[in-house]
Amino acid sequence: MKKLLISFFSLLFLLVCVPALESDAAEDNAVWTDAGNLTWTLSDGDGTNLTVKLIGNVLHVQGTGAVPSYSADALGNRPWNTFNISVYEILVYDGITSIGSRAFSDMNYLQKVTMNASVFLEDGTVFAGAGEGCRFNFLGTNMSTELIGEKIPYTSLDSIVQFALANNNGDYYYVFANNYMTRLVKQKSGDKLFNVVSSDDYDDTTNPSYPYINLDTKVKKVSGDLHYLTAITTQSNLQGKAALEIFALVIGDNEYIGAYNVSLNLNDTVIKNTDTPVTYSMEIPNAYKYPGRQFSLIQLGNGVVNILADEDTDDNTITFTTDYPSTVYALVYHD
User: Model confidence over 142-188: pLDDT tens digits?
Assistant: First the structure.
């Protein structure tokens, strides 16, 4: 068995020394121009030209580019902040590519948000604190993609799911174009989201660039001392961008399939470590089975990153050995 161990200290060094994959810095000093009549504009000379206008109780967000992020102590720098109590609805128009952290947070009377599914949401704070029962409407089946480390795709729908998971208390409704989109959302969230619905159950529009691929798999014990095991649960789950950045650092020439949360359970207690290493087998999702294809697992947890090479010659499974099985794995391959 070939195993590569990389400590988190080494990863931190890499993350510091490798050029940043993206900037998470808040733009607290973004200079908005008051155009009068509750209208504000922002231009950075680099493709961002925004107009935000409050008409009645609806905040219209128009133009091109990204709505900037704000830190928690600089929310007053948002020109619409004074009118938060008046905003019941936000409309995000075509041309907006992303919305930054806390851009529209703490708007306690907000009841409806509408935008295209192609808009990136920076994190879970973008609309955090919206009014109870707020409906987030994501239009269409078009999505945008950025590559993390030039290897791992992260889509606008991924970012929307991350936002929803961070605000998954049952107070909000997440409305998508059709069953194709809701199916993707449920897969990416591990079916953990509340109040996900389709606006049109009869619309069969799909996006061929983003096919639904069944990533279901099972993990079972092959050998080793694990007589007390009662269950192994394996679920395909969207991971946060920090995890994807780590995957990208060590993925090498491999292709990314997806990430899984694996949990060994005994009487409803998760077994994170075993006294001795135990060998397991994971089924390869049908869509990725191919004669001679070489699979590996990137394992995060327990203070290290392991790259676990396949210990069997079966094209249908990957066999691996570990003493901390309950963690996150990325399944990767090369031909």
Answer: 999 999 999 999 999 999 999 999 999 889 999 999 999 999 999 99
In sequence order, what DSSP letters do the residues of 111-176 get, joined into one string? -EEEEETT-EE-STTTTTTPPTT-EEEEESS---EEEETTTEEEEHHHHHHHHHHHT-SSS-EEEE
The set of residues, in sequence order, having a beta carbon less than 8 Å from that of 294 and lying 6+ positions away, is 310, 333, 334, 335
Please give the distance of CA 42 from its chain centroid, rounded to a whole number. Answer: 28
* CA nearest to 131, candidates 37, 41, 57: 57
In the numeric block, which tokens belong to residue 292?
């001679």
* Contact predicate 172/134, CB 8 Å: yes
Whether the CB-CB separation of 81 and 45 falls below 8 Å is answered with no
Q: In this structure, are residues 279 and 311 in contact, taking their beta carbons and an 8 Å threshold?
A: yes
Distance from C-alpha of 21 to C-alpha of 163, rounded to nearest angstrom: 20
Helix (H, G, I), strand (E, B) or coil at 266: strand
Q: What is the DSSP letter of 177?
A: S
**Amino acid identity, position 271:** I
Higher pLDDT, 7 or 56: 56
CB–CB of 294/284 below 8 Å? no
Question: Per DSSP, what are the bridge partners of residue 153?
Answer: 147
Looking at residue 327, its amino acid is T
Q: What is the pTM of this model?
A: 0.89
CA proximity to 70, closest of 134, 122, 133, 22: 122
Structural element, H or E, at residue 17: helix 8-17
CA nearest to 174, candidates 131, 204, 220, 134: 134
